[in-house]
Specification:
heterodimer; A: alpha+beta; 8 helices; flat; B: about 250 residues; seven-stranded mixed β-sheet; globular
């Protein structure tokens, strides 16, 4: 178990550092952050991680022994859960997460922002990397081919989605379309209101009848 | 065992000869030490060392001694963790290993806060109460007098400092032990022959692991050396154990 979490962390660290080494803008950003240390306290799963910046990348360490943590040694202490970490990495605004109480940061808040920007703004020059292995012309041709393939993939995905939608909703009528669904929902709401009104009238009639019966 | 002899793998050799014999082994494998470690352990030795780093509790400004530091895997990470105010000393008895480690650290841009010392673990050349943390990874079994080495380490640790010993140990599962023996005595020397051109050094490696004290014995030895709160963690079914003790 100890090896599994360590392996995962080592994998993340290696991947991050490999990506950073391929980003032409990373060295300048890393040199500004070098020497900074962030303590990341995750609530679920409960663990403490250290992000230590150096000129070539990031070191990630898991701290298992609480006695080993001295908050004064860190430039920033971040407390969050796995869901918030996912939201943070996927680009959700830090301020919103902080004001909603899902993210707590003590110390230099800008370090967390800089960390997120470093990861989100990764601009990998794949073509240059390919060129170092294959040469400029073959690398450019291969990169153009890959870009074309990616464009074709996106277009095909959109077309496939539209075709499937048309077949399911219009041709085979296997599912109701959005407009049909909304019309049905409105009709059901009207029916519910009408039923309520009828029920109320019946109750009033019952009361009147019972009052008449008592008088006679 | 004769008083004037000690183990060198499965052989009994005169005490004064062991250091020279161990030195020959490491002179022979130094240039391909990292490659062989990766091949032999399928890369898992890097994870064992990572766990050692995580348990070391090293902070900025600390002084760290990495004994038998070999090719500098731990020292490289420690140098970043202690920062410019801290200091890391990479010590090894073997000049070839120390040279490989120094070149590797320089290649990684490490310099200012790392020192290199050729030293025998049995008589470490440092004043009392010097280091916040001492590590010895896959080195203790090669030391001739382990009790003397542990006492020397305890002497130079600061009060509150930690000693971490990462070393091959005894697997707890009999099936794993059998598979491990087959691997160590049949496959390992052949791999050594193919990659490093030296099967005898790797045969010594397998034999020295079997002659090394098991987890509980080593724990007792660390306690005898004056360390407190000694605990150990088995890694990969006990093939390797990480012992940690604190000087109070």
């Amino acid at each position: 178990m100890a090896l599994t979490s360590t392996l995962m962390l080592a994998g993340i660290e290696k991947t991050l550092n490999a990506l950073l080494s391929r980003d032409p803008a990373a060295p300048a950003r890393l040199s500004a952050l070098a020497g900074s240390r962030i303590l990341l306290r995750l609530e679920s799963p409960s663990c403490a991680l250290v992000l230590a910046y150096h000129a070539q990348g990031i070191d990630l360490l898991q701290i298992k022994d609480i006695d080993d943590i001295e908050e004064a040694d860190f430039d920033a202490i971040v407390e969050l859960d796995a869901e918030t970490l996912g939201a943070l990495v996927s680009g959700e605004e830090m301020e919103r997460l902080m004001f909603s109480g899902r993210l707590a940061v003590r110390g230099k808040v800008h370090l967390l922002e800089a960390t997120r920007d470093l990861i989100l703004d990764l601009d990998l020059d794949w073509e240059a990397q390919l060129a170092s292995w294959l040469g400029d012309v073959p690398a450019h041709q291969l990169a153009e081919g890959l870009r074309g393939l990616a464009r074709w993939g996106l277009r095909t995905q959109h077309e496939l989605r539209a075709d499937v939608s048309e077949y399911v909703f219009e041709e085979a009528r296997l599912l109701p379309g959005r407009h049909q669904f909304e019309a049905l929902r409105d009709a059901l709401t009207d029916l519910e209101l009408a039923t309520d009104r009828t029920e109320a009238r019946l109750a009033r009639l019952q009361r009147l009848l019972s009052t008449e019966a008592e008088r006679s | 065992m004769d008083k004037r002899t000690t183990h060198f793998g499965y052989q009994d050799v005169p005490v004064e000869e062991k250091a020279a014999r161990v030195a020959d082994v490491f002179h022979s494998v130094a240039s391909r030490y990292d490659l062989m470690n990766d091949l032999m352990s399928f890369g898992i030795h890097r994870l064992w060392k990572r766990i050692t780093l995580e348990r070391a509790g090293v902070r900025p400004g600390h002084k760290v001694l990495d004994i038998a530091g070999g090719t500098g895997d731990l020292a490289l990470k420690f140098s970043r963790l202690v920062g410019p105010e801290g200091k890391v000393v990479l010590a090894d008895i073997n000049a070839s290993m120390l040279g490989v480690g120094r070149d590797k650290l320089i290649d990684h841009g490490v310099g200012g806060n790392v020192e290199f010392v050729q030293a025998n673990a049995e008589c470490l050349p440092f004043p009392d109460n010097t280091f916040d943390c001492i590590t010895i990874a896959f080195g203790l079994r090669n030391v001739t007098d382990k009790d003397k080495a542990l006492a020397s380490m305890a002497r130079i640790l600061k009060p509150g400092g930690r000693l971490l010993v990462l070393e091959f140990s005894k697997p707890s599962n009999p099936l794993l032990t059998k598979a491990y023996d087959e691997y160590s005595f049949r496959l390992l020397p052949k791999m050594g022959e193919l990659v490093a051109g030296d099967s005898e050094s790797y045969r010594y490696l397998a034999e020295s692991i079997r002659m090394h004290p098991d987890q509980k014995t080593l724990k007792g030895m660390m306690e005898n050396a004056g360390l407190e709160r000694v605990e150990y963690t088995n890694l990969t079914g006990g093939i390797v154990a990480l012992h940690r003790g604190i000087k109070l």
